[in-house]
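[agent] plan:
  1. take the single chain provided in the ticket
  2. run structure prediction with default settings
  3. attach structure tokens to the ticket
  4. add a short note for the reviewer (M.T.)
[agent] executing step 1
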Amino acid sequence: MNEELRRWLEEHGDEIPDEEEAKERYAADVSGRCAICKARPAKYRCVRCGKAVCPSCFLVLYGLCRNCASPEARKMKDGEKDYGVDIIK
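[agent] step 2 finished; step 3 output follows
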């Protein structure tokens, strides 16, 4: 973790993650079905909860699954109409 990120986390009162624990938590390959919808293959891992999730249940911009993302962030996922781009679900 770089020094700027560490300072930002301290300023905002966020917990500074243990780097060794994070490495172990995310070292496992993402495989199997999405932990949220259980319908599609998992392609990503949420940086907050560690669940393996599919692209439809993951907000790439934030690195969070839809369960961990704030309501405001989830609204951004539906913003495809603003750009004239349809998301395949």
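[agent] step 4 note for reviewer: The longest helix spans residues 3-11.
[agent] ticket updated
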